[in-house]
């Protein structure tokens, strides 16, 4: 009996030993790289360097590693090896010099489950190309860069001004107002209508979108990316990501059904109508994605990308204004001189407001809401910085390192609008301003975001002086998240 147990135990021991050796060999083969592949820090089996990353600021470790391994190096995160591109010189070479090589998104277990290759943000190939072209044309058709949309943003600015006035100079957190206002612009474009800020359904969707984005930056999402099959069956916060996407998609499907009932194909009102028209008339193959399932996921992307990014940037901009009251004063003086107080600022004023324009850009540079951009995958063999990067490699652009590149900015690490001004005080476009990234996958909403930031920001500073509530000292340290927001803060707004 004892002898048999010993044999069983030895069998089990050998089995476990064999399993460990097998898993180590499998792990080695799976992450083995080609000769002259960018070098990088030593990695643990299975998890790589993932536990060195601070989930709230992963770019910090990745920037530090570039000091040791150079502007092009590799790092293993879970089962995936990423080529890290650091600093403006290498980012420009890859995104602009070799734009055709850096065009696809890298695979991800979460996006595979949610998107299955559809949508705008994480899709690739023909579907991405056709959908991106359609989205750009449709957003233009719906007013981006034109007076009609400008008026809609001005009207929303007025509503935000009224909301701020209701606070009567008492301390308040502006987050929800900015969130509501920005979300209403993209909602008007995709659904054809805005929402009252008190609308419970609207608030619920905004909350779910934010929460879903946040969960994707947590350790739960990292674990799902490393062990998808296991995590799929385990309880945990990662499940909230999938529930969140499902809830938002469910709402969009309801809007879609309403549109199908009351649309007039001769007069499309919004993104949904325009897409439904395209579905009926398109000569594209099914792989181009003109289907209802894909429409829902494209709208999910537009809602996420079009809301979280822009309102977070506005939060940074107002935070910088209360931390740097002299800068705020100069912006107000410029707005007073050019626009006055009797009308709202318009896009035509922008070229006459160089200091204000510089402040908005500087807020984006220092706010730096997407420090690692969105992961890429090379579509053919390429070389960068003297290293060989084979087709199918994952690539991350450290946009944080570009926006703080010491070779490109007068004062890389401190908030200073002079970074965007010449000696005569004229606004200067800086090539290293890659807040919207660059190349073939450059932010699709950049023109819309620029309009919104300019009109919302200027209308706020035209009407109010913002200050830090007594006894408070808001931090400039980021709170982290998928889209990096400032830590919650309060302001006092005094009508000017
Ligand atoms: C301050 C505001 C914004 C910032 C800083 C920003 C930044 C970015 C960045 C860095 C990317 C990744 C580009 C790359 O892969 O290299 C991106 C992609 C994207 N953005 Fe924005 N964005 C903003 C606003 C918007 C808005 C308002 C929309 C809505 C229309 C939008 C829609 C998108 C979409 C759909 C993509 C994916 C493009 C593709 O993969 O082809 N963004 N954005």
From TrEMBL:
One GO MF term: iron ion binding
Principal cellular location given in the protein's record: membrane
Localization annotation: Membrane
SUPFAM superfamilies: Cytochrome P450 (SSF48264)
Coiled-coil region list: none
Signal sequence segment: none
Cofactor(s) annotated in UniProt: heme
A biological process from GO: organic acid metabolic process
Binding residues annotated for heme, in chain numbering: 443
Protein origin, superkingdom: Eukaryota
Xref: Gene3D superfamilies: Cytochrome P450 (1.10.630.10)
Record-linked InterPro entries: Cyt_P450 (IPR001128), Cyt_P450_CS (IPR017972), Cyt_P450_E_grp-I (IPR002401), Cyt_P450_sf (IPR036396), Cytochrome_P450_fam2 (IPR050182)
Gene Ontology, cellular component aspect: cytoplasm; membrane
Keyword annotations from UniProtKB, A to Z: Heme, Iron, Membrane, Metal-binding, Monooxygenase, Oxidoreductase
UniProt family annotation: Belongs to the cytochrome P450 family.
UniProt-recorded name of the protein: Cytochrome P450 2J6
